[in-house]
Amino acid sequence: MSMEIESKFNMFLNDDGRPKRTGNLMTVSSHIITAVIGSGVLSLAWAIGQLGWIAGPAIMIFFAIVTFFASCLQTECYRTGDLFHGKRNYTYMEAVRSILGGMNVKFCGIIQYVNLVGVCIGYTIASSISMMAVQRSNCYHSKGHDNPCKVDGNAYMIVFGVFEILLSHIPNFDQLSWLSILAAIMSFTYSTIGLLLGILQVSANGTVKGSLTGISVGEITKTQKIWRSLQALGNIAFAYSFSNILLEIQDTLRSPPSEVKTMKKASLISVTMTTIFYMACGCFGYAAFGDLAPGNLLTGFGFYNPYWLVDIANLAIVIHLVGAYQVFAQPIFAYVEERVSDRFTNSSFITKEIHIPVPYSDSTISFSLFRSIWRTIFVIFTTLVAMLLPFFDAVVGILGAIGFWPLTVYFPVEMYIVQRKVPAWSKMWVCLKLLSGVALLISIGAVVGSIAGLQENFKHFKPFNIEY
């Protein structure tokens, strides 16, 4: 009898003793699209404007290829040793610890979690800008485009923070599938609207604006041209970033089929779809406005009409970012809570879970006082920092630059070399090392350019005085 009970119990558990994972190709693709097609798409017209018609699209395709290739390397690090039955690595940092070890673990942890926190801050900024854009759009419609229509962004950041505090009570990543699917739908909504508005604007202009080399020296100084071009690299890198949560997403997959096979398919689908959207949105945005392409396509008011369509796009951005924030915050929550639980195993405040029955349902909601307090503090922190640094373009550029080399390329390459025992100085080894070296140079340049852009923004900035 006991064996029968144990057998039934094991039906609900994976080989690692954890509850059965329920993710599939659709859910993980939704998670990736939610993470990738984020606020970064809105700055691509500006980025292409700095680089021009030749370098802009070419660099975007380069980042797409590198991102997909590196993600394929990274998926093979979900299990240590055997790709199908080896020990699971639930997080990026755990994979680095299992495969590389040493100082790599600390380096990875610092970069990954700083990047995740930064993305949460960036999404808070972007969502408030979109909410402000809705108010300004309606103001322009009723009072005319000559009216300044100044809007204070602090209140919108606080509203976004309140929503994130509520959603942060969702215990873990696997329970966020519905939110990711909704957010993915919203990302396609506003990307499509931005694309359509760009096409309509090009049609209205009767010509394709822009130049082969981007904004010319004369309109800006030589130094500004260099800094802006480098910052554009960071913006494009940010638009493709999802490597820092790839393994966390992969850990939601059920098997069979193999998690590696499903994740590679999901990466190909997601990167292909996002690249098509990115090329269309970025190129049509640049074609519509040329060198005057705004840093945020839907909130920089390159488009005024139809105002209701612009409003729908910005509301879709807000809904998307509400979900995307959680996709990036959940790995932080899980890491901190696991470490604290391991350290204070006898503390009821830390470990006690209260299961609250859901009315008219057999399910329950898990509640922890520690989890509730700590996650609330985290959201308040990211909201306050966003209010201090409301610079969308520069923040996006810095985040993309910091994360691109180490998280997207370096660690996946090094882990793959160790996992597959790639011989030193073989063709594969040399190619992988060259790729890592090129990515390092791009990241350094993008960081420098983005910091220069941030310094320029600080010249006209007053803390907690967010007006657009």
From TrEMBL:
It comes from the Eukaryota. GO terms for molecular function: amino acid transmembrane transporter activity. Keywords: Amino-acid transport, Membrane, Transmembrane, Transmembrane helix, Transport. InterPro entries: AA_transpt_TM. GO terms for biological process: amino acid transmembrane transport. Coiled coil: none annotated. GO terms for cellular component: membrane. Pfam families: Aa_trans (PF01490). This is Amino acid permease 2. It comes from Zostera marina. The lineage of its organism: Eukaryota, Viridiplantae, Streptophyta, Embryophyta, Tracheophyta.
